[in-house]
Amino acid sequence: MRRQLVRLHRWFGVATALFLFVAGLTGAIIAWDHELDAALNPSFFKARTHAPALSGLELARRVEAADPRLQVTFLPLTAEPGHTLQMMVLPGTNPATKQPYPLDFNQIAVDPATGEIQGRREWGVASLARIHLIPFIYKLHYTLQLPFTGNVDTGTWLMGIVGTVWLFDSVIALVLSFPSFKAWRKSFAFRLKRGGYALTFDLHRSGGVWIWGLLTIIALTSISMNLSAPVVRPVVSLFSKLTPDPINNPELLRAPQPGDQVLSRERIVELAEQAGKAMNLSVPAGGVYYAQFLHAYGVGFYAPGNDHGDIGLGNPWMYWDAATGKPLGKTIPGKGTAGDIFMQVQFPLHSGRILGLGGRILISAMGVAVAMLSATGLLIWLKKLNARRRSAQNAGLARSPGGPAAQS
Fold this sequence. Notes:
two-stranded antiparallel sheet; 12% strand; alpha+beta; eight-stranded antiparallel beta sheet; PepSY-associated TM helix domain-containing protein
């Protein structure tokens, strides 16, 4: 049995090592995505004008009026003091051609006092230019920058499958790390003075044992982040009912009707503020987005700059039909069924934000550790592969005419 487990661990590790090495290093970086992005691109983050800021809704109106080619799809409702207000945009429809306007950007940074656009970029584009670097790394982390194939997000599926293999392999690795009860201490030890292959082996085995629980959490949450709708939610629903929401339950959505008019952002924010007061939410409406493909609006409740959620289970979100204003669902951290809360905890755990700053530091260190375990695993495999090849060559020489076996 142990021999079969060793073989599985070897091939699971070799198959996923490169992917996990990239995911580990990029994960260590994007734990600080906002801070690093702001340091690399101060003109995109720092407002030029030091004057009272306009509301996000007014800034969006000014941006769309100044450039009819674009449509604002997401905007924070209030800018952080001294910072630009960053909006996501999509091309509007050219009335002459009935086709989308060509745009080479999907994110803009706006001076909150004037509505002037300070910067533009294509968030997530494969580019090492300073303005694109951190979004590129962020997208690389969970998609490897692989394109859609038809309607399939190949990168997200691939990384979800890698996470699944990694989770099973983590269990196998733990079993293999304790070959006997008497030798359990060796599985926690590092032969620092020996160096070389002995230390490489201990870094891989003992290093993995010491942080096994955290590695398992990261592997599980990586599956949940990449394969939530097609895999994780159906499995969770077998054990606990999940509250429907329009993101994961398209049947809640009303098909657009001829003559439908999209409600204004102002009206949706008004509905959100009323709903927030009714639910006694402690934070204001912080951002609004329009999902054209869902024909729905979503509103998040958070303080300026806290769109990711600094600590706990994240931010509340509510959804409305874009034409009728009918409520479509909500996600309130800590509320709902056991399955709802399980799903809510996945991103805060994976990002470390559930523990605030300390959690982000821990996740960044874990990203480096994942890369180290992948690299040491490959080194061990290569060394053993070369040893097996030399052994096979020696055996072949021994059996060949004129070899030692023939001469004996």
